[in-house]
UniProtKB/TrEMBL annotation:
The lineage of its organism: Bacteria, Bacillati, Bacillota, Bacilli, Bacillales. The keyword NAD does not apply. The keyword Transport does not apply. Belongs to the methylmalonyl-CoA epimerase family. Residues 3-131 form the VOC domain. This is Methylmalonyl-CoA epimerase. InterPro entries: Glyas_Bleomycin-R_OHBP_Dase (IPR029068), MeMalonyl-CoA_epimerase (IPR017515), MMCE/EMCE_epimerase (IPR051785), VOC_core (IPR037523). Keywords: Metal-binding. It comes from Alkalibacillus salilacus. It comes from the Bacteria. CDD domains: MMCE.
Amino acid sequence: MNKIAHIGIAVKSLDEMIPFYRDQLGLTFEGKEQVNSEQVHVAFFKIGESAIELLEPLSEESPIAKYIEKKGEGIHHIAFDVDDVQKRLNHLKSEGIPLIHEKPKTGAHDSQVAFLHPKAANGVLFELCQQK
């Protein structure tokens, strides 16, 4: 693990929340992107070597919509930057760590991403990110 790539925060509306992170907190807005593999619209804000990722559901079937319905808006996951996501997944699987994804899929910025099951870390959802 190289660093925390980002902290994902589930929100109902990017348009309502972007001004807070950009104008009130003073974080550098890096733009918005649609991530079809996760059914979300995301906005990124740079903070040091990491980022804050706001996640807005694209539909009621989106995992983020279901998360917001169950737990409300707030911190959804912590993402780690890794050099080789598949190698890391293979290692974790061999150690008996429960995974949501055994193979990476395309995430924001064309990165390769995969999630560990929250049962692996007492309810904390971790994402592995390999930048393009």
